Each structure stands twice: as C-alpha cells, then as structure tokens.
Amino acid sequence: MATAAHWIEGARLRTLPNAIAPVLAGTGAAASLDAAAWWKAVLALVVSLALIIGVNYANDYSDGVRGTDDERVGPLRLVGSGLASPTAVRGAAIASLTVGAVFGLVLALTTARWLLLIGAACLAGAWFYTGGRKPYGYSGFGEIAVFVFFGLVAVLGTEFVQAERIEWAGAVLAVGVGAFSSAVLVANNLRDIPTDTESGKTTLAVKLGDPRTRTLHLVLLVVPFLATLLLVVRTPWALAGLLAVPLAVRANNPVRSGGNGLELIPALRDSGLALLVWSAVSALALGFG
To answer: Where are the transmembrane segments (predicted)?
Structure first.
C-alpha cells in the first residue's frame, strides 16, 4: 500500500517550479502595466499547481497501465511500482485536474468567458499527453505542448486575467518560461531514451537521438537569456535575469558531460531551479523597474 510519502513523491514536487514560474512571470508582466490583481494571481497559482500535479498523476496512471514504467530509471511511479492501483492513481489525477478546473472557472467568469475554451484545451492537453488511444507524448510532441501550455498559455493567461490585455514584454517572458520548461522535459526524456525506445514511447529525444537531444537542451537554456536582453528595452533591471546563468550552466553540465540514467537527475532539478530564479527576478524587474 502506498503511504502518504509515496503519494507525495508520485506528485513529483520537483516539477512544481514549472507551475510556479509562469504565474510569477505573468504577474510581473501585469504589474509592469500597473494592473496586478493579487487575488487573481493566487487563483492562477492554484490552477497551475493543480494542473501540474494532475498531469503528473495522469502520466503515472497512463504510463503504468501501458507498461512503460516497468523498467523505471527515474523517480518512483505509483502504478509502475505496484504501490497503488491504477484506479486510485487515476482518481488522484481527476481530483487534481478538477480542482484546477474549478478555480479556472472562477477566473474565466470574472474575466472573460472565452477563457473557458483555453481551460478546456489545458485539461485535454494534460490528460492526452500520455492518455487516450494515441497520446501525443508518445509521438514526440511533449516538448511543444510544454512550451505552449506552461509557457505561452500559462504566462499570457496569468497576465490577461489580471490586466485584461497582453503585450510584448509578457510574450517575451512566456517564450523564456516555455523554453526553460521544455528543457526540463528534454533532460527527463534524454535520461529515458533507452527505456522509452524499448517500450515503444517515441519521444522527441528518441526521434532526435542522444547527441542532438543534448544540443537541444543547451539551446533551450540559452533562449531565456536572449529574452533577458530583449526585456532590457523595457527596463535595465531586466538584466537581473542573468543571475540564473550559473544555475543554467550547472543544469547543462551533466548533459554536456555525457551523463546517463540517474546522472541526469540533477539536470532536471537545476533546469527547474534556473526557471524559477529567472522568472522571479525577471518578474520583479518588470514589476518594479
């Protein structure tokens, strides 16, 4: 039987920077327009956290019942390890996604009802990443989805529900956040190339192969700092985003040095930390610069 600690580990708390960062960035963009609404920022954070925990449980369930996690290299999976039943993990996924849907509904009804369509797309994206008959995560589209949902949609959505408009600085932040978030998934999928190939999970890393996937990780880590240079047009304080450079370098070290398997776990952690630091300081720079 899975303990509370197992369920917490199954929620994959290390991925939470991918949920927190876009809300920070979007709120910073709204603050730069003198339109920050803190209660909406809090609701957006709840939505983002609920969705990422929901998608983590959904992936655990879908990968587990497909047998993809039978030879697991990374962190614990509840279904694949046999600690929890598929039904229980699916229920946890649905419960988390429902929480996100409810708070998202509040944001939509208090801002613009067409946001309900965006919310529905987010829920579908969360479930069908590894769920359904033809999961898009098994066809190499995972990184694109992460860039869109945890970058563009999450950042610009957070900005819009507060400011009721979006502008170029928010879009630049969204690209940076999306690139960092995709880098986290690239490191994860690089680690899993051998087991994913064996199980028939054709991720982008499997399609690109090991060397090109390592190059992609580096490129994605560079993009946010190019975004920083663009944000200097708004405020010179945006250069504070360069404080995340050491974390990005540390994140790429295991990838650049040819690490495999568990050796790549620090790349996931540090890519997420770089994302969080870059988003936080960039948001502060825009909001108060």
So the answer is: 37-58, 88-107, 114-130, 136-156, 168-187, 216-249
Tokens representing 87 are 């039904």
In a domain, 123, yes or no: yes
Is residue 241 assigned to a domain? yes
What gap in Å lies between CA 278 and CA 214, rounded to an integer? 21
DSSP 112-147: -TTHHHHHHHHHHHHHHTT-SSS-GGGTT-HHHHHH
Tell me the pLDDT tens digit for each residue of 148-174: 999 999 999 999 999 999 999 999 999
As a whole number of angstroms, the distance between CA 224 and CA 242 comes to 9
Q: Describe the crossing of helices 210-231 and 245-256 by its angle, rounded to 10 degrees.
A: 170
Residue 273 structure tokens: 């930390």
In this prediction, residue 39 carries a pLDDT of: 96
Structure tokens at 170: 């928010």
Containing domain of residue 29, as a range?
Answer: 17-288
Cα separations in angstroms, 154 against 21, 49, 115, 192, 241 = 9, 11, 12, 27, 19
Domain count, the chain: 1
Q: Assess if residue 1 is contained within a domain.
A: no
Q: Count of alpha carbons within 13 Å of 22, Cβ hemisphere only?
A: 35
Measured between alpha carbons, how far is 121 from 145 in angstroms, rounded to an integer? 11
6 lies in some domain: no
